[in-house]
Specification:
The structure is a homodimer.
Chain A (H helix, E strand, L loop, with lengths): L1 H6 L3 E7 L2 E7 L1 E4 L2 E7 L3 H7 L3 E14 L7 E12 L1 E2 L3 H15 L3 H4 L5 H6 E7 L2 E7 L17 E9 L3 E2 L10 H4 L7
Antiparallel strand pairs in A: 1-2, 1-5, 3-4, 4-8, 5-6, 5-10, 6-9, 7-8
Chain lengths: ~190, ~190
Protein backbone atom coordinates (compact mmCIF):
# COMPACT_ATOMS: atom_id res chain seq x y z
CA UNK A 1 0.00 0.00 0.00
CA UNK A 2 2.67 2.51 0.97
CA UNK A 3 4.70 1.82 -2.18
CA UNK A 4 1.65 2.54 -4.34
CA UNK A 5 0.77 5.65 -2.37
CA UNK A 6 4.34 6.89 -2.66
CA UNK A 7 4.50 6.42 -6.42
CA UNK A 8 1.15 7.90 -7.43
CA UNK A 9 0.49 11.63 -7.54
CA UNK A 10 -3.29 11.91 -7.40
CA UNK A 11 -5.75 10.30 -5.01
CA UNK A 12 -9.49 10.04 -5.50
CA UNK A 13 -11.25 10.82 -2.24
CA UNK A 14 -14.76 9.47 -1.79
CA UNK A 15 -17.17 10.63 0.86
CA UNK A 16 -20.91 10.59 1.28
CA UNK A 17 -22.61 13.93 0.79
CA UNK A 18 -26.26 14.71 1.34
CA UNK A 19 -27.32 13.43 -2.05
CA UNK A 20 -24.96 10.51 -2.41
CA UNK A 21 -21.32 9.69 -3.07
CA UNK A 22 -18.79 12.31 -4.16
CA UNK A 23 -15.33 11.52 -5.55
CA UNK A 24 -12.77 14.30 -5.86
CA UNK A 25 -9.17 14.16 -7.09
CA UNK A 26 -6.45 15.64 -4.91
CA UNK A 27 -2.77 15.48 -4.13
CA UNK A 28 -1.61 14.04 -0.85
CA UNK A 29 1.38 13.12 1.25
CA UNK A 30 2.32 10.32 3.59
CA UNK A 31 4.11 10.39 6.93
CA UNK A 32 4.55 6.91 8.35
CA UNK A 33 1.12 5.31 8.65
CA UNK A 34 -0.79 8.52 8.06
CA UNK A 35 -2.06 9.90 4.78
CA UNK A 36 -2.50 13.67 4.57
CA UNK A 37 -4.90 15.54 2.30
CA UNK A 38 -5.11 19.30 2.10
CA UNK A 39 -7.03 22.12 0.53
CA UNK A 40 -8.45 25.56 1.10
CA UNK A 41 -10.45 26.00 4.28
CA UNK A 42 -13.31 27.06 2.01
CA UNK A 43 -13.21 23.78 0.03
CA UNK A 44 -16.66 22.30 0.69
CA UNK A 45 -15.69 18.78 -0.31
CA UNK A 46 -12.65 18.73 1.90
CA UNK A 47 -14.58 20.24 4.79
CA UNK A 48 -17.12 17.47 4.41
CA UNK A 49 -14.31 14.93 4.42
CA UNK A 50 -12.92 16.39 7.63
CA UNK A 51 -16.19 16.22 9.47
CA UNK A 52 -15.61 12.85 11.07
CA UNK A 53 -17.31 11.04 8.18
CA UNK A 54 -16.08 7.81 6.67
CA UNK A 55 -13.76 8.30 3.71
CA UNK A 56 -12.45 6.04 0.99
CA UNK A 57 -9.23 7.19 -0.65
CA UNK A 58 -8.19 5.31 -3.77
CA UNK A 59 -4.91 5.70 -5.64
CA UNK A 60 -4.34 4.00 -8.99
CA UNK A 61 -1.18 3.58 -11.03
CA UNK A 62 -1.88 2.58 -14.61
CA UNK A 63 1.00 0.40 -15.78
CA UNK A 64 -0.18 -0.88 -19.13
CA UNK A 65 -2.89 -2.04 -21.47
CA UNK A 66 -3.34 -5.79 -21.72
CA UNK A 67 -4.21 -6.85 -25.28
CA UNK A 68 -5.82 -10.28 -25.47
CA UNK A 69 -6.88 -12.34 -28.46
CA UNK A 70 -10.51 -11.96 -27.40
CA UNK A 71 -12.24 -8.67 -26.62
CA UNK A 72 -13.40 -10.31 -23.38
CA UNK A 73 -9.93 -10.80 -21.91
CA UNK A 74 -8.66 -7.28 -22.51
CA UNK A 75 -7.55 -5.72 -19.26
CA UNK A 76 -5.27 -3.19 -17.64
CA UNK A 77 -2.11 -3.73 -15.65
CA UNK A 78 -2.39 -1.51 -12.62
CA UNK A 79 -1.61 -1.12 -8.97
CA UNK A 80 -4.23 0.43 -6.73
CA UNK A 81 -4.44 1.15 -3.03
CA UNK A 82 -7.70 1.71 -1.19
CA UNK A 83 -7.75 3.32 2.25
CA UNK A 84 -10.84 3.39 4.44
CA UNK A 85 -11.12 5.53 7.54
CA UNK A 86 -12.46 8.62 9.20
CA UNK A 87 -10.71 11.89 8.48
CA UNK A 88 -9.24 13.93 11.30
CA UNK A 89 -8.76 17.68 10.85
CA UNK A 90 -5.17 18.48 11.81
CA UNK A 91 -4.99 21.40 14.23
CA UNK A 92 -1.54 21.00 15.77
CA UNK A 93 0.69 23.55 13.97
CA UNK A 94 3.74 21.28 13.93
CA UNK A 95 1.80 18.34 12.49
CA UNK A 96 0.16 20.64 9.96
CA UNK A 97 3.49 22.05 8.80
CA UNK A 98 4.99 18.55 8.57
CA UNK A 99 1.99 17.33 6.59
CA UNK A 100 2.24 20.19 4.09
CA UNK A 101 5.97 19.58 3.70
CA UNK A 102 5.22 15.91 3.07
CA UNK A 103 2.68 16.82 0.39
CA UNK A 104 5.12 19.11 -1.45
CA UNK A 105 7.95 16.59 -1.10
CA UNK A 106 5.71 13.83 -2.37
CA UNK A 107 4.93 15.74 -5.56
CA UNK A 108 8.52 16.91 -6.10
CA UNK A 109 11.32 15.62 -3.92
CA UNK A 110 13.59 18.40 -2.66
CA UNK A 111 11.17 21.17 -3.55
CA UNK A 112 10.24 22.26 -0.03
CA UNK A 113 13.82 23.39 0.65
CA UNK A 114 13.79 25.58 -2.47
CA UNK A 115 10.59 27.51 -1.77
CA UNK A 116 9.27 29.97 0.75
CA UNK A 117 7.74 28.02 3.64
CA UNK A 118 4.08 28.61 4.53
CA UNK A 119 3.32 31.72 6.58
CA UNK A 120 1.13 31.61 9.67
CA UNK A 121 -1.73 33.11 7.62
CA UNK A 122 -1.31 30.48 4.90
CA UNK A 123 -1.35 27.70 7.48
CA UNK A 124 -4.60 29.13 8.88
CA UNK A 125 -6.13 29.18 5.40
CA UNK A 126 -5.19 25.56 4.74
CA UNK A 127 -7.27 22.62 5.87
CA UNK A 128 -5.25 19.45 6.44
CA UNK A 129 -6.91 16.10 6.96
CA UNK A 130 -5.17 13.07 8.40
CA UNK A 131 -6.28 9.55 7.56
CA UNK A 132 -4.83 6.45 9.17
CA UNK A 133 -3.55 3.71 6.88
CA UNK A 134 -4.69 1.07 9.37
CA UNK A 135 -7.51 -0.08 7.10
CA UNK A 136 -5.98 -0.26 3.64
CA UNK A 137 -5.56 -2.79 0.89
CA UNK A 138 -3.75 -3.07 -2.41
CA UNK A 139 -4.73 -4.71 -5.68
CA UNK A 140 -2.23 -5.42 -8.44
CA UNK A 141 -2.47 -6.86 -11.94
CA UNK A 142 0.72 -7.57 -13.83
CA UNK A 143 1.81 -9.69 -16.73
CA UNK A 144 0.46 -10.91 -20.04
CA UNK A 145 -3.18 -11.53 -20.99
CA UNK A 146 -5.11 -14.48 -19.67
CA UNK A 147 -6.31 -16.39 -22.72
CA UNK A 148 -8.79 -19.14 -23.45
CA UNK A 149 -6.90 -22.11 -24.91
CA UNK A 150 -9.14 -22.03 -27.96
CA UNK A 151 -8.08 -18.46 -28.74
CA UNK A 152 -4.37 -19.31 -29.01
CA UNK A 153 -4.96 -20.55 -32.55
CA UNK A 154 -6.16 -17.10 -33.64
CA UNK A 155 -3.76 -14.92 -35.59
CA UNK A 156 -4.14 -12.08 -33.12
CA UNK A 157 -1.33 -10.39 -31.21
CA UNK A 158 -1.46 -10.76 -27.42
CA UNK A 159 0.67 -8.82 -25.02
CA UNK A 160 1.06 -5.64 -23.03
CA UNK A 161 1.61 -2.04 -23.99
CA UNK A 162 3.35 -0.44 -20.99
CA UNK A 163 2.27 3.06 -20.01
CA UNK A 164 4.31 5.52 -17.98
CA UNK A 165 3.76 9.05 -16.76
CA UNK A 166 6.66 11.01 -18.23
CA UNK A 167 7.76 14.59 -17.57
CA UNK A 168 8.16 16.96 -20.50
CA UNK A 169 10.30 20.09 -20.80
CA UNK A 170 9.84 22.47 -17.84
CA UNK A 171 8.05 25.69 -18.79
CA UNK A 172 9.21 28.65 -16.71
CA UNK A 173 6.72 31.45 -16.13
CA UNK A 174 9.33 34.04 -17.18
CA UNK A 175 8.51 36.50 -14.42
CA UNK A 176 10.30 37.62 -11.27
CA UNK A 177 13.97 36.91 -10.61
CA UNK A 178 15.69 34.94 -13.36
CA UNK A 179 16.87 31.55 -12.08
CA UNK A 180 17.93 28.23 -13.55
CA UNK A 181 15.60 25.28 -13.50
CA UNK A 182 16.17 23.76 -10.05
CA UNK A 183 17.03 20.17 -9.20
CA UNK A 184 13.50 19.32 -8.04
CA UNK A 185 12.19 20.13 -11.53
CA UNK A 186 15.13 19.19 -13.76
CA UNK A 187 15.64 15.87 -12.03
CA UNK A 188 11.98 15.14 -11.40
CA UNK A 189 10.88 11.58 -11.62
CA UNK A 190 7.72 9.80 -10.66
CA UNK A 191 8.07 9.51 -6.88
CA UNK A 192 9.21 6.13 -5.67
CA UNK A 193 9.81 4.98 -9.24
CA UNK B 1 -16.81 16.68 -20.03
CA UNK B 2 -16.86 14.36 -23.04
CA UNK B 3 -13.39 15.47 -24.16
CA UNK B 4 -11.99 14.62 -20.72
CA UNK B 5 -13.82 11.29 -20.60
CA UNK B 6 -12.54 10.42 -24.05
CA UNK B 7 -8.92 11.19 -23.24
CA UNK B 8 -8.62 9.49 -19.85
CA UNK B 9 -8.33 5.72 -19.46
CA UNK B 10 -9.36 5.08 -15.87
CA UNK B 11 -12.40 6.26 -13.97
CA UNK B 12 -12.87 6.21 -10.22
CA UNK B 13 -16.36 5.04 -9.37
CA UNK B 14 -17.79 6.02 -6.01
CA UNK B 15 -20.83 4.45 -4.42
CA UNK B 16 -22.14 4.11 -0.92
CA UNK B 17 -21.78 0.67 0.60
CA UNK B 18 -23.10 -0.46 3.94
CA UNK B 19 -20.21 0.96 5.90
CA UNK B 20 -19.58 4.09 3.91
CA UNK B 21 -18.13 5.27 0.62
CA UNK B 22 -16.22 2.99 -1.73
CA UNK B 23 -14.10 4.20 -4.66
CA UNK B 24 -12.92 1.68 -7.27
CA UNK B 25 -10.88 2.24 -10.44
CA UNK B 26 -12.18 0.90 -13.71
CA UNK B 27 -12.05 1.35 -17.45
CA UNK B 28 -15.08 2.64 -19.28
CA UNK B 29 -16.46 3.68 -22.62
CA UNK B 30 -18.75 6.38 -23.90
CA UNK B 31 -21.52 6.23 -26.48
CA UNK B 32 -23.13 9.62 -27.00
CA UNK B 33 -24.38 10.87 -23.66
CA UNK B 34 -24.00 7.55 -21.89
CA UNK B 35 -21.01 6.30 -19.95
CA UNK B 36 -20.57 2.53 -19.73
CA UNK B 37 -18.77 0.62 -16.99
CA UNK B 38 -18.27 -3.13 -17.00
CA UNK B 39 -16.96 -6.00 -14.98
CA UNK B 40 -17.52 -9.57 -13.99
CA UNK B 41 -21.02 -10.40 -12.87
CA UNK B 42 -19.42 -11.57 -9.62
CA UNK B 43 -17.80 -8.16 -8.97
CA UNK B 44 -19.41 -7.06 -5.71
CA UNK B 45 -18.55 -3.40 -6.16
CA UNK B 46 -19.96 -3.24 -9.63
CA UNK B 47 -23.07 -5.14 -8.60
CA UNK B 48 -23.60 -2.59 -5.86
CA UNK B 49 -23.15 0.20 -8.39
CA UNK B 50 -25.76 -1.37 -10.64
CA UNK B 51 -28.35 -1.64 -7.93
CA UNK B 52 -30.07 1.64 -8.65
CA UNK B 53 -27.89 3.50 -6.15
CA UNK B 54 -26.43 6.93 -6.74
CA UNK B 55 -22.97 6.88 -8.27
CA UNK B 56 -20.22 9.43 -8.69
CA UNK B 57 -17.76 8.70 -11.48
CA UNK B 58 -14.66 10.89 -11.56
CA UNK B 59 -12.03 10.95 -14.28
CA UNK B 60 -8.83 12.94 -13.88
CA UNK B 61 -6.12 13.81 -16.39
CA UNK B 62 -2.93 15.00 -14.75
CA UNK B 63 -1.30 17.53 -17.08
CA UNK B 64 1.52 18.94 -15.00
CA UNK B 65 3.02 19.99 -11.72
CA UNK B 66 2.80 23.70 -10.95
CA UNK B 67 5.93 24.92 -9.15
CA UNK B 68 5.39 28.19 -7.29
CA UNK B 69 7.84 30.35 -5.37
CA UNK B 70 5.98 29.56 -2.17
CA UNK B 71 5.12 26.08 -0.92
CA UNK B 72 1.55 27.35 -0.49
CA UNK B 73 0.92 28.07 -4.17
CA UNK B 74 2.14 24.75 -5.50
CA UNK B 75 -0.58 23.06 -7.49
CA UNK B 76 -1.36 20.66 -10.30
CA UNK B 77 -2.57 21.32 -13.81
CA UNK B 78 -5.35 18.87 -14.46
CA UNK B 79 -8.67 18.29 -16.13
CA UNK B 80 -11.32 16.35 -14.28
CA UNK B 81 -14.87 15.33 -15.06
CA UNK B 82 -17.37 14.33 -12.42
CA UNK B 83 -20.56 12.48 -13.35
CA UNK B 84 -23.42 11.95 -10.93
CA UNK B 85 -26.29 9.60 -11.58
CA UNK B 86 -27.92 6.27 -10.92
CA UNK B 87 -26.48 3.24 -12.67
CA UNK B 88 -28.66 1.14 -14.93
CA UNK B 89 -27.76 -2.51 -15.55
CA UNK B 90 -27.73 -3.04 -19.32
CA UNK B 91 -29.76 -6.09 -20.32
CA UNK B 92 -30.44 -5.48 -24.01
CA UNK B 93 -27.91 -7.66 -25.89
CA UNK B 94 -27.34 -5.12 -28.67
CA UNK B 95 -26.70 -2.28 -26.22
CA UNK B 96 -24.46 -4.55 -24.16
CA UNK B 97 -22.39 -5.54 -27.19
CA UNK B 98 -22.13 -1.91 -28.33
CA UNK B 99 -21.05 -0.83 -24.84
CA UNK B 100 -18.32 -3.48 -24.67
CA UNK B 101 -17.09 -2.49 -28.13
CA UNK B 102 -17.01 1.13 -26.98
CA UNK B 103 -14.95 0.19 -23.93
CA UNK B 104 -12.37 -1.73 -25.98
CA UNK B 105 -12.26 1.01 -28.63
CA UNK B 106 -11.84 3.64 -25.94
CA UNK B 107 -8.77 1.92 -24.54
CA UNK B 108 -7.27 1.12 -27.94
CA UNK B 109 -8.83 2.51 -31.11
CA UNK B 110 -9.24 -0.13 -33.80
CA UNK B 111 -8.71 -3.05 -31.46
CA UNK B 112 -12.21 -4.49 -31.53
CA UNK B 113 -11.89 -5.31 -35.23
CA UNK B 114 -8.67 -7.27 -34.57
CA UNK B 115 -9.93 -9.54 -31.80
CA UNK B 116 -12.47 -12.27 -31.33
CA UNK B 117 -15.81 -10.70 -30.43
CA UNK B 118 -17.51 -11.69 -27.15
CA UNK B 119 -19.38 -14.99 -27.17
CA UNK B 120 -22.89 -15.32 -25.82
CA UNK B 121 -21.48 -16.92 -22.67
CA UNK B 122 -18.99 -14.08 -22.18
CA UNK B 123 -21.76 -11.50 -22.58
CA UNK B 124 -23.75 -13.32 -19.92
CA UNK B 125 -20.77 -13.28 -17.56
CA UNK B 126 -20.24 -9.55 -18.04
CA UNK B 127 -22.13 -6.90 -16.12
CA UNK B 128 -22.49 -3.61 -17.97
CA UNK B 129 -23.71 -0.47 -16.26
CA UNK B 130 -24.96 2.60 -18.07
CA UNK B 131 -24.75 6.04 -16.54
CA UNK B 132 -26.24 9.14 -18.13
CA UNK B 133 -23.96 12.14 -18.59
CA UNK B 134 -26.88 14.49 -17.93
CA UNK B 135 -25.49 15.51 -14.56
CA UNK B 136 -21.80 16.09 -15.14
CA UNK B 137 -19.28 18.84 -14.66
CA UNK B 138 -15.69 19.52 -15.57
CA UNK B 139 -12.93 21.31 -13.70
CA UNK B 140 -9.73 22.45 -15.36
CA UNK B 141 -6.53 24.12 -14.14
CA UNK B 142 -4.00 25.27 -16.70
CA UNK B 143 -1.14 27.71 -16.88
CA UNK B 144 1.62 29.01 -14.65
CA UNK B 145 1.59 29.35 -10.87
CA UNK B 146 -0.41 32.01 -9.12
CA UNK B 147 2.07 34.01 -7.06
CA UNK B 148 1.92 36.55 -4.28
CA UNK B 149 3.51 39.79 -5.51
CA UNK B 150 5.91 39.72 -2.59
CA UNK B 151 7.26 36.34 -3.69
CA UNK B 152 8.33 37.54 -7.14
CA UNK B 153 11.48 38.99 -5.58
CA UNK B 154 12.57 35.54 -4.42
CA UNK B 155 15.24 33.73 -6.43
CA UNK B 156 13.02 30.68 -6.87
CA UNK B 157 12.01 29.13 -10.18
CA UNK B 158 8.31 29.23 -10.98
CA UNK B 159 6.67 27.32 -13.78
CA UNK B 160 5.14 24.07 -14.87
CA UNK B 161 6.54 20.60 -15.43
CA UNK B 162 4.22 18.96 -17.99
CA UNK B 163 3.34 15.30 -17.45
CA UNK B 164 2.10 12.91 -20.11
CA UNK B 165 1.13 9.27 -20.14
CA UNK B 166 3.43 7.70 -22.72
CA UNK B 167 3.41 4.20 -24.20
CA UNK B 168 6.57 2.10 -24.03
CA UNK B 169 7.64 -0.79 -26.24
CA UNK B 170 4.91 -3.42 -26.71
CA UNK B 171 5.69 -6.71 -24.97
CA UNK B 172 4.23 -9.70 -26.83
CA UNK B 173 3.36 -12.75 -24.78
CA UNK B 174 5.24 -14.99 -27.20
CA UNK B 175 2.62 -17.71 -27.31
CA UNK B 176 0.08 -18.86 -29.88
CA UNK B 177 0.29 -17.91 -33.54
CA UNK B 178 3.19 -15.57 -34.38
CA UNK B 179 1.92 -12.20 -35.61
CA UNK B 180 3.28 -8.70 -36.02
CA UNK B 181 2.38 -5.98 -33.56
CA UNK B 182 -0.96 -4.67 -34.86
CA UNK B 183 -1.91 -1.09 -35.63
CA UNK B 184 -3.96 -0.66 -32.45
CA UNK B 185 -0.83 -1.34 -30.38
CA UNK B 186 1.96 0.06 -32.60
CA UNK B 187 0.06 3.26 -33.28
CA UNK B 188 -1.49 3.60 -29.84
CA UNK B 189 -1.87 7.06 -28.48
CA UNK B 190 -3.73 8.46 -25.55
CA UNK B 191 -7.32 8.49 -26.82
CA UNK B 192 -8.55 11.89 -27.95
CA UNK B 193 -5.07 13.37 -27.49
Amino acid sequence: VTAILDEALVAHVGFVAEHGPVVIPTTYGRVGDTLYLHGAVGNAGLRAAAGGRPLCVTVTLLDGIVFARSAFHHSMNYRSAVVFGVGRAVTDPAEKAAALTAIVEHVAAGRSAETRAPSAAELTRTLVIALSLAEASAKVRTGPPVEDDDDLGLAVWGGVLPLTLVPGEPVGDGIGVATGVPASVRGWQRPGA
